[in-house]
Amino acid sequence: MAVPSRVMLSTALVAVVYCSAPSAQPFPAKPLRVLVGFTPGAGVDIAVRLIAPKMSETLGQSLIVDNRPGAGGNIAAELVARAPSDGYTLYAGGAPAAISQSLYTKLAYDLLKDFDPVALIGTVSTLLVVHPSLPVKSIKDFVAIAERRRGELTYATTGAGSTPHLTAEMLRLQTGIQILHVPYKGTPPALNDLIAGNVSFMFANVLSVMPHVNSGRLRALAITSAKRSAIVPSLPTVAETYPGFESGSWYALFAPAGTPRDAITRVNEAVNRAMQAPEVRDKFIAQGAEPLTGTPQDATAYTRAEVVKWAKVVKASGARVD
Question: Taking the CA atoms of the chain, what radius of gyration do you get in angstroms?
Answer without folding.
Answer: 23
